[in-house]
Amino acid sequence: MLRLVIFMAFAMFPLSALAQSCSFSVSNMNFGLVDTLSGSQTNTTATINMNCSGIVGQRILICAHLAAGTGGASSATARQMFSGANALNYQLYSDSARSVVWGSYAWAYASRPPALALTPNVLGSATGTATIYGAVAGGQGTVPPGTYLSTFSGAQVEFRYRYTSGSSCSTASGTVAADPTFTINATVAANCLVSTQNIDFGSKGVLDGNVDATGQVSVTCTPAAAYTVSLNGGTTGSPPTTRKMSKGVETVTYGLYKNADRTQPWGDASVPGSTVPGTGTGVPQVFTVYGRVPPQATPSAGVYTDTVVVTVTY
């Protein structure tokens, strides 16, 4: 007698594995201290964390739509953070070269989000990360100091996902995930830049009368930053009106002044009232330095020089 038995193999899968389900979080993006007077760009990044479950081996396309944030955008290339009524321009990108703007189907500009994707493993789950690249453009010198912020939440950030082999993120397609919230922030600190133009008294045969010449100090400070400009006593540490240009042990006495009449000496904190005050505007402010060589005994012929250190305190 033959006994025929067919053994039925079966497997159990949770129903949730048949449909895709994804969740997302985004880290805050902090630019730290930003030097708006510099022409250099300030870069940083944020990270998207992705967790999905679904059909084994079935590709899930993820579209992370990022609109303008609460700071808005002044153009297709400039999102904004705000500190009160003051704006700081920045941008979000999908590439490390920071050339492709990360956008959304739901904003006024052409840029769209990059195509992200996860494929569930044999357990029906998948995880991954993606990087958002941020940049604050240099040369925003008229931006005042402060803490600048833009928030992405609600309608400003929308994650959509769907089963597909395609890579289009140009429309509102797919299931909408719970919206993550993240912030973009930067701190603009008070800062100053300084440049100078030397003073050349030229050639003089005999020092029997005043010899006048001028130079310049150019100061660029962030708006509303109070500052003072001081000039030290040169290599000999002399008082403002009796500084010394030298050639070996021989010297020529000269003075530096704040006014064209050469009545207001320009010195440093060691001489009260001799410094020059200012308030930053974000653009260069030029101060004339008035020099004078008074009549004096004429030393031997040659080139006489001195080095004066300009200090901007803010």
Automatic annotation (TrEMBL):
Q: Which keywords label this protein?
A: Plasmid, Signal
Q: Does the keyword Glycosyltransferase apply?
A: no
Domain Spore coat protein U/FanG positions: 17-152, 181-311
InterPro entries in the record:
Spore_coat_component, Spore_coat_U/FanG
Give the signal peptide, or none.
1-19
An example of a Pfam family matching this protein is: SCPU
Name-wise, this protein is Spore coat U domain-containing protein
Native organism is Mesorhizobium ciceri
